[in-house]
Known about the structure:
The chain is an alpha/beta fold. It has two domains: 59-203, Rossmann fold, CATH 3.40.50; 206-300, Winged helix-like DNA-binding domain superfamily/Winged helix DNA-binding domain (Arc Repressor Mutant, subunit A). It contains nine helices and 15 strands. The protein has helices at 30-48, 88-98, 111-120, 137-146, 164-172, 185-204, 232-242, 251-259, 268-281, and strands at residues 4-15, 18-27, 51-53, 59-61, 79-84, 103-108, 125-129, 155-159, 177-180, 206-209, 212-215, 220-223, 226-228, 290-293, 297-300. It has a five-stranded parallel β-sheet with strand order 6-5-7-8-9, with helices on both faces. The chain has a four-stranded antiparallel β-sheet with strand order 10-11-12-13, covered by helices on one side. β10 and β11 form a beta hairpin. α7 crosses α8 (251-259) and α7 crosses α9 (268-281). The longest helix is centred in the middle third of the chain and has 20 residues, at 185-204. 25% of the residues are buried.
Amino acid sequence: MENTEYSQVISVFSVDSVAIYHDFELSKCRSARRAFLSARMTQLAIKNMDTVKQPQGSFRPSPEGALSTGKIQAPGVKICVLVVEDDPDISTMLEYTLTNSECRVITVSDCQNATRELADTIPSLILLDWMLPDMSGIELLRKIRRDARLRDIPVIMLTARGEEADRVRGLESGADDYVVKPFSIRELKARVNTHLRKQISDRTTTYSIDGLVLDQESYRTTVNGESIELGPTEFRLLRHFMSHRDRVFTRSQLLDTVWGTNVYIEERTVDVHIRRLRKTLEPFGKEHLIQTVRGAGYRFSMRE
């Protein structure tokens, strides 16, 4: 074939004793590249899934081959994975592989539909393609990271762009992980499970330091067993401090983390909410935990 970029041969593999051989010549045309990737992904899916025979000789993943969430599932938490992928074969394969009784998978093919879904649902994790028809996946990722409501969602980039510069760009834009197509289904599931485990742990964490307890799930704060009332901003501020003990944050960093990067307010607003938080903790003798670091910012610490 003329004008080919390179040729790629996928080896023989077998399903129910039927040998299948694919020989793909990959042109510079994007559609040809996607056809190759889709076929390669199908091969890897078949190779990596445990299969059980059906009456007509078809195959499907065994229960053990599906996304394993039993060990990481917190009571009452329903896992939702949003797949943003415009290749229907890969999208269908991911939906089929990850769906089980504890995990719901939503698939969309472009950024517009992804944005629509994110307006109604906060998924546990996002699998995001880079090259999408209406907008770059990187642009969508940056929007997610600017949104205070969505910015903590783990995002795994799934893309054919495997150069070092692309990986760095993806990670620096806010991706939690970067997987290059074609990829192993088992490896992807392991990565998904790792991020979901951390996500669920973060949701259910109760922070307890020096008698001060913050429960994220019940949205309650107590000191030595006695409830205290915090406003939503003070609660987020205290949660951030308690989850990053002994670390100094500038006002700018606190604004970005607690208020969000798309909110434009004066840095001195941080001082106002720090004073409110200290005033609330003062009757319990805990105001000293919120410390001012002269010329730098604030930290949460038991050490003087």
